[in-house]
Amino acid sequence: MSDWADTMGDAVKAAFLAGVMAEASKQARHAGKATVAITADVGVKTVKKVKRKASAYSKRYGAAFRKVAGRFKLKNGSWKKNGFKNAQKAAHKLAKGDK
Questions:
Q1: Which residues contact residue 21 at a Cβ distance below 8 angstroms, ignoring those fewer than 6 apart?
Q2: Phi and psi of 65, rounded to 5°?
Q3: What is the pTM of this model?
């Protein structure tokens, strides 16, 4: 009886931990936070989410967008009509350069 109870206890514990880890991982992904990993000695630890590395083009585009954005804004700082669209187009053209 004791062996059966220990086996069932271990099975219930493992199932509970699996459910907890699945739910924690789901909520972490939903919130955009660090994901949760399980380890043998500690139990539960968090793993930092790796941020993407900005490409050279996206850096050039960001700089170009900041440079041209002022031409497409009103005095109060809001966008002119089609200002964002036109600023985006101008920034892509500037960032692309001549290749």
A1: 36, 38, 44
A2: -65, -45
A3: 0.50
* Domain end call among 47, 66, 83: 47
pLDDT, residue 34, reads 59
Distances (CA, A) of 76 to 7, 72, 79, 86, 95: 71, 12, 9, 18, 27
Please check whether residues 92 and 62 belong to one and the same domain.
yes
Neighbouring-strand partners of residue 36: 46
Residue 85 has pLDDT above 70, yes or no: yes
pLDDT at residue 27, rounded to an integer:
75
Q: Number of folded domains in the chain?
A: 2
Domain that holds residue 23: 2-47
